[in-house]
Amino acid sequence: MATVECLGFKSAGIPAGLKKNGDPDLGLIYSASPAAAAAVFTRNLVQAAPVLLCRERIQSGRCRAILVNSGNANCCTGQQGMRDAVAMSAAAAAALGVDEDQVLVASTGVIGQPLPVEKIEAALPALVQKLAPDGFPRLAQAIMTTDTEPKLVTRRGTAGGRHYTIVAVAKGAGMIRPDMATMLCFVCTDAELSAAALDRALRRAVDVSFNRISIDGDTSTNDMVALMANGRSGARLATREDERDFTGLLEDALRELARWIVRDGEGVNKTAEICVQGARSTDEAYRVADTIAHSPLVKTAFFGQDANWGRILAAAGRAGIPLDPERLDLYFDDVQMVAGGVGCGPAAEAQATAVLKQAAFTVTLDLNQGAAAARFLTCDFSPDYVHINANYRT
Amino acid sequence: MATVECLGFKSAGIPAGLKKNGDPDLGLIYSASPAAAAAVFTRNLVQAAPVLLCRERIQSGRCRAILVNSGNANCCTGQQGMRDAVAMSAAAAAALGVDEDQVLVASTGVIGQPLPVEKIEAALPALVQKLAPDGFPRLAQAIMTTDTEPKLVTRRGTAGGRHYTIVAVAKGAGMIRPDMATMLCFVCTDAELSAAALDRALRRAVDVSFNRISIDGDTSTNDMVALMANGRSGARLATREDERDFTGLLEDALRELARWIVRDGEGVNKTAEICVQGARSTDEAYRVADTIAHSPLVKTAFFGQDANWGRILAAAGRAGIPLDPERLDLYFDDVQMVAGGVGCGPAAEAQATAVLKQAAFTVTLDLNQGAAAARFLTCDFSPDYVHINANYRT
Asked: Among residues A165, A182, A291, A364, which one is catalytic?
């Protein structure tokens, strides 16, 4: 991998003894100058202490550093959990010499166990010492739980004749060993834009990326996506067009990470893009795609490479939106399986079975009642998923 | 099993060649005199032809016979499917000498394949000839798909000094081999009550039985529960108390069938009753119980006998109702696992693991924000579930 840098940012990742196997489990991002910041968090009402703390701190729209640990989610840990999250941020602020309220913290791992915050405090001097402009790959490694590879993507853009960089790291969601299947993503850019513009761009990009993937439908208590912009490239996003370009690059980067997360989920053999079109509104299209993407019967059929279109129609039928079964058309890639709610017969089934033998394919359902569409990325449901999640804590 | 009879009703079940293995696949219920009737159907918008036909016919509140086949769901079969459903009912009406619009029909099995209605027509004379007062067990057998045992329950009640009987047969829902995991249930009683009273009793009983079980959350295109009352016992349900008694017996019978269906689902090793209490309304309690009961992470933990309470709290947190995580108490049977949102520690975990080793247990979540409660019966999610559903059609 070519060296990845983003002007004015340093990062690092080291082992701090939170993971039993000695793997890196503590990561840090630091901006040498003040940075604008935005973040989105899990919508689960049961939220880990670091999420509660960051929700408050991000209101300022400023952030200098993010400290993140894997191996322990610091969730369902009561008031002690909040004290530990604050202690984590205080330790990072002291070691870096920045304001404590400009430090965000994140945790992922087993829930319900006290965070060994003393291990984090003890490791911080070494972590700060390791901070380096090319530290992103080590950061990406430190936030892994059972991801099989660190996930890091970059994009380059231009504004006002100056180049800027976006660097994003993420760890996996759902269907994977971590107890709560937390999804974490941290994005740095050396472009210059306001906290309000950052917030708009981030919400839009998350909506078309991380909010459009499904592994098992269980929303984590710790999910968080944070974005910092320090302007050190000198590329100022001054016009609407600049902002649109930036948002497009960010969407593209987060979509790549989202796909990577699904593909890398343990127990995943197939990824399927569910495309629902011909809906009366994007929301209705989304609801149908979401229901299909979460159906265990659909997902087990994908695992079995079975072009079982009846299950897809049945999932659509219970999505809670009005639709006319006799208008439904269904395709597996380019193979039409259903026309007007009726199956296209054995020849189509045979072709569709070949489509399902691929590692990735698209399922398109046309409701034929409007012009809106939505896409959702999902995966198969395998016996490995069950084994992994049945035996996680034992 | 003692002989089961319900005055004035005859039933039968025989092989008609719809199932490849030659098992019974055609069943008939017949009332010797006019009967009041009520039915509830799947809420899936994709509905099989027999469901569409019965929805219309049940409006009359009268029914003389129900003809049901397994081996083919007659769903997603277009206009031909409706013609076939009508032909099924016409054949039964002719063979029995009753009005065609007083015959209900039901189908279960693979969807998207034309119903071989000629086999049903050919078998009808033999089926009618087999009709007998003690034919319920053979009916129960004929509607089976991968249920491992026929499901038949009875209840006895009294009204106005006369005894009456309720007989109910059912076949399994979800998580089992049939493509669409159809749930069918047919109930006969020789009590006398109006179609309106029947409808009230049936809706109430279904709401606390079949609507409170989850196997995989996939709602079938063919689900149907039908109830006939012919009054032949002379027991007339004249008072509110009589009606309440009847409804109680019906609830009890359908709850027994619902539990049986879950327990007998293929791939099921554990059944868990999810009890959510301390909610502000029954609807909110139901939504939380429903979300927990459908969570793949919770269900795989049950399979693994892992007292993974964090997953249960996380499921509650995404149920879409307001709740305070710091008020949550959680119990596995009588073992308290969580108090005020915080885990009760290793000793409780050890005790809870012993609870989960049982074949059946109760999970109680107290929201501590009201007085309403709801129960939901669910099961574990096993590798067998995946294998069965991955390889159903191949």
From this structure: A182
